[in-house]
Design a protein that fits this description.
By secondary structure, the chain is α+β, with helices and mostly antiparallel strands. Helix content is 55%, strand content 20%.
């Protein structure tokens, strides 16, 4: 199914609205957040941010909370998919630590 730009914007707006209402407030209580990376064929790809990034419970959070709320509240969403990857911020911090160690040697 090919979606027009307007339909996609509407879907993305519905996703963000559902996340703001049902998901992000709970994540914020744990010092976390999430970011939608892309939406393809009813799949919402996202990553966890803040304290939720890299948390062992993130997989459960995505399957139990994020997936449930998006599928329930946004027509057209079939599943939420967590993408685990290292954030640029974490990579920059690691490089800085390594560079400091090299300078001391």
């Amino acid at each position: 199914m090919v979606e027009t730009a307007r339909e996609m914007n509407t879907l993305e707006e519905q996703i963000e609205s559902a996340l703001d209402e049902y998901v992000r407030p709970l994540l914020a209580t744990h010092g976390g957040d999430m970011e939608v990376l892309r939406v393809e064929d009813g799949l919402v790809y996202f990553r966890m941010l803040g304290h939720c990034a890299g948390c062992a419970a993130a997989d459960l959070t995505s399957e139990d909370l994020i997936n449930k709320e998006l599928v329930e509240h946004v027509p057209g969403v079939r599943r939420a998919v967590l993408e685990n990857r290292v954030s640029q911020e974490l990579m920059d911090q690691a490089r800085e630590i390594l560079n400091r160690r090299r300078m001391r040697s």
